[in-house]
Design goal:
This protein is mostly beta strands and about 625 residues long. The protein is about 10% helix and about 30% strand. The chain contains nine helices and 31 strands. The strands form six sheets. The protein has a nine-stranded antiparallel beta sheet, with no helix packed on it. Strands 9-8-13-12-11-10 form a six-stranded mixed beta sheet, with no helix packed on it. A five-stranded antiparallel beta sheet has the order 1-28-27-26-25, with no helix packed on it. The radius of gyration is 23 Å and the shape is globular. The two termini are about 40 Å apart.
Length: about 625
């Protein structure tokens, strides 16, 4: 049950919080709660977007709005180094995968080289693998069957397909293309040596027989979304780390509660069959070495990635940042699980002029959890050892303990349990912050609160935060629900898009988001399907200002079974990079596709080629800015 008291209905909160002038301007009317109709004058206001809306549907192809074209830029298995043969899915090897684009790309970031919007480094997270779609002969029985069937070599290929890629790309007359063999090219995997830094580094709870000092670890896993810093590094968030650990902790082990909080005990991978560090009964501290934000220098392929423990340990969806007015760096963080929390990290130091001066900026600062009040205010509660009960009496002997068990600390302080907080991004033009909340079908009527206003929330919602005084380091903020997602034509769903949103324009399950150079919001989704919404996942453009606030428009649709990830704009807004994850999965929850019988073979459509997760570059025909 929620730690917060029962809140008044969302309708009552909106009516109380908005003045009549706000409602007439559309700020409140866009919510379209029961009893509040649309503002008649709003239809005369021009849209911030001029692309023709794409019809919502579902099939095995990728679709984009008329007047635009989508180019597959990188696919799983594509060679990144010179003298490699074309990808052959029947001749995979761990060594080969380490030199090829990885699987299931999620976060995508673009870092220009020498300020050139037509040349830069693409940094991409490879979140996880679908073995049943990667390897022939595994079938599609169930996850346990797939795990048991994998060989040691196939597990090694999976580990090499995790992590991330750094790829130089260039735009020429023929479109975008990777620079094969670039000096910047790098593959990061589940075996790449990494440093553990910050307050938890060296703590006994991070020590293992292979690393008795608790300062070094092999690899990063389940890296979902992330961010790019002003000094040109890539932040990559480890998310569902519990999938990788099998076995049980010894009876009465001190990490038992921590393991339960992180969901350990339900493995989705068989790595522990061949690697003892993924077996809890043999290496009980190994999970504490995962679940962090990793900082990577994409300009130096020989550099050591660093797990920044000051940013906390949980199931990180993203790590998008913004520089506060006083120069400190602020990172917004979501913990992607039902009833988990929204976080903010504020660095102790200030962003400096050179890359070298910022090398350790993220090793010290204040991590806080958000508490949303029913009156539309909120505050950041600092997760600081010795304050608010985060002390030895409650099992926190040091700041390292607070960070290793961030979830327990956040709950103890009274952070608001949310409906799967995923990507959180600050609008560079307005300073307002947008929180993607995907869904929570486990929330009961007794557990609803103002920030999570629907029980059995199958479709999610988007919250807008306004930092006090526009200061991202301020202790307080104001908030409101921008939209409640789902089909507005179904009263029982209680969706709240603007009445100007068409039957193609609404969506469910918001996941990632991005802002273009004009400060316009673009939202990617995860979980739409025939049964839930009658449409595939994709990209929707969302109005956040003026009388059209709360209106969304459909821009791009992924193939059946796939998820939309990684939205990212090139600096000139002429290219929109997106990631198509796990094409080939069934169009339903549960069950597995297979190498032989995927739901789609996109993007190759060859019976000899399985579906391949890809990064896609979207451009406007004839040139011009997106949107």
């Amino acid at each position: 049950m929620s730690d917060l008291p029962a809140a008044p209905s969302l309708d009552a909160v909106i009516v109380r919080r908005f003045s009549r002038r706000d409602l007439m301007r559309g700020a409140g009317a866009a919510a379209l709660v029961a009893g509040l109709g649309p503002v008649p004058a709003a239809s005369a206001e021009p849209s911030a977007f001029d692309f023709p809306e794409l019809a919502a549907g579902i099939d095995e192809h990728l679709h984009v709005a008329e007047g635009y074209e989508a180019q597959v830029l990188l696919r799983w298995g594509d060679p990144l180094y010179a003298d490699l043969p074309a990808f052959d899915p029947t001749a995979q090897s761990p060594e080969g995968q380490e030199k090829r684009f990885g699987y299931n790309n999620d976060f995508v970031g673009f870092i220009p080289l020498d300020g050139d919007a037509n040349r830069g480094l693409l940094v991409v997270n490879h979140e996880y693998t679908n073995a049943e779609l990667m390897f022939a002969g595994l079938g599609a029985t169930d996850r346990k069957g797939v795990i048991a069937a994998l060989s040691a070599e196939q597990v090694a290929i999976e580990m090499a397909a995790h992590g991330g890629s750094v790829v130089e790309i260039r735009h020429r007359d023929g479109g975008w293309a990777p620079v094969i063999g670039s000096a910047f090219t790098r593959r990061i995997t589940a075996r790449t040596p990494m440093a553990i830094t910050g307050p938890a580094a060296g703590h006994p709870r991070l020590a293992t027989a292979a690393d008795p000092e608790g300062r070094r670890v092999e690899g990063m896993i389940n890296n979902c979304s992330g961010g790019v810093t002003p000094w040109g590094t890539w932040l990559s968030g480890e998310e569902n780390i519990h999938y990788y650990f099998q076995g049980r902790l010894p009876e009465g082990h001190a990490e038992a509660g921590n393991a339960k909080t992180m969901g350990l005990g339900t493995p989705q991978y068989g790595w522990g069959r061949f690697h003892e560090r993924f077996d809890l009964s043999k290496t009980p501290n190994e999970p504490n070495r995962f679940g962090w934000v990793v900082e990577i220098d994409p300009f130096d392929p020989a550099s050591t990635p660093r797990k920044r423990t000051a940013l906390g340990r949980f199931k990180h969806e993203g790590a998008a940042g913004v520089t506060a007015g006083d120069g400190r760096y602020v990172v917004y963080l979501g913990d992607d699980e039902r009833f988990q929390h929204v976080y903010r990290f504020v660095s102790a130091g200030r962003v400096a002029a050179t890359r070298a001066e910022n090398a350790d900026l993220l090793d010290s600062g204040t991590l806080s959890v958000a508490r949303f009040e029913a009156d539309g205010t909120g505050r950041w509660l600092a997760l600081t050892h010795g304050a608010g009960g985060l002390d030895a009496a409650n099992g926190f002997a040091s700041q390292a303990d607070v960070l290793i068990e961030t979830r327990r600390a956040a709950k103890l302080l009274g952070g608001t349990p949310m409906d799967r907080p995923e990507d959180i991004e600050a609008n560079p033009k307005t300073g307002r912050v947008y929180v993607m909340l995907t869904n929570n079908t486990k929330r009961t009527p007794e557990q609803i609160d103002a920030a999570n206003p629907r029980p059995l929330n199958a479709f999610g919602h988007v919250i807008e935060l306004s930092p006090e005084g526009g200061d991202h380091s301020a202790e307080t903020f104001r908030w409101e629900v921008l939209v409640r997602c789902g089909d507005p034509a179904k009263p029982e769903v209680k969706a709240s898009f603007s009445a100007l949103t068409t039957a193609d324009g609404w969506f469910g399950m918001p996941d990632n988001c991005a802002f273009d150079g004009s400060g316009r919001l673009w939202i990617a989704t995860d979980g739409n399907n025939r049964r839930a919404t009658g449409r595939a996942d994709g990209i929707w453009a969302m109005e956040t200002e003026g009388p059209r606030r709360g209106t969304s428009r459909h821009f791009l649709q992924v193939p059946v079974g796939a998820e939309m990830c990684g939205p990212c704009f090139a600096p000139d807004d002429r290219t929109f990079f997106v990631a198509v994850q796990h094409p080939g999965e069934p169009d339903e929850e549960g069950g597995l596709g297979s190498y032989e019988k995927p739901s789609t073979r996109w993007p190759d459509f060859s019976p000899d080629m399985p579906p391949r997760p890809s990064v896609v570059a979207v451009t406007r025909k004839g040139g011009g800015r997106i949107g």
